[in-house]
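Here is the promised in-class demo. Please do not try to memorize the tokens; focus on the logic of going from shape to residues.
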């Protein structure tokens, strides 16, 4: 467990106590204020009043890094995520890759196909995300026009992450060009 958690490099923020949050649908819910504060420091989850909600893919990542203490393993959380999201394994690979490189990554809110990526060194709330990533399997064809339209409405750069069977990830940035 000597790895950095979430790109923050805060090894002393790992969860050591026994309190465990709970699983609720497609989310892990944390209600312990001290854990919420520690998780927010590394850009995890979304606070909703007195609780912190983490999508299961994000919960799996932070469980694997020792920040969560959910009572489930990374693999078990990922398996739960895969029961409702056919791309859960690929999304997890992209989230892990980017988080390990120091980016804050947020799984799409609601039923969004996009993950939001924040610049390195930025805390949530300090700046808006610059890009959105849509995860696809290698060989899958993107829906370019609708995806560009959605990203444009969000005022974000569109990046595709093509995940191969061997775990390799190819990132491709897509944008419109006007030759006026």
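The designed amino acids, position by position:
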């Amino acid at each position: 467990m000597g790895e950095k958690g979430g790109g923050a490099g805060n090894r002393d923020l790992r969860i050591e106590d026994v309190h465990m949050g709970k699983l609720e649908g497609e989310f892990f819910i944390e209600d312990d204020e001290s854990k919420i504060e520690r998780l927010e420091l590394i850009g995890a989850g979304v606070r909703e009043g007195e609780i912190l909600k983490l999508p299961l893919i994000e919960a799996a990542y932070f469980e694997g890094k020792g920040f969560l203490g959910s009572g489930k393993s990374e693999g078990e959380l990922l398996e739960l995520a895969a029961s409702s999201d056919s791309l859960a394994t690929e999304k997890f690979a992209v989230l892990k890759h980017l988080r390990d490189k120091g980016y804050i990554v947020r799984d799409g809110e609601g039923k969004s196909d996009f993950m939001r990526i924040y610049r390195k060194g930025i805390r949530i709330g300090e700046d808006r995300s610059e890009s959105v990533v849509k995860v696809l399997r290698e060989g899958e064809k993107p829906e370019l026009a609708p995806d560009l339209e959605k990203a444009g409405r969000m005022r974000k750069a569109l990046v595709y992450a093509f995940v191969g069977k061997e775990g390799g990830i190819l990132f491709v940035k897509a944008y419109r060009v006007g030759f006026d």
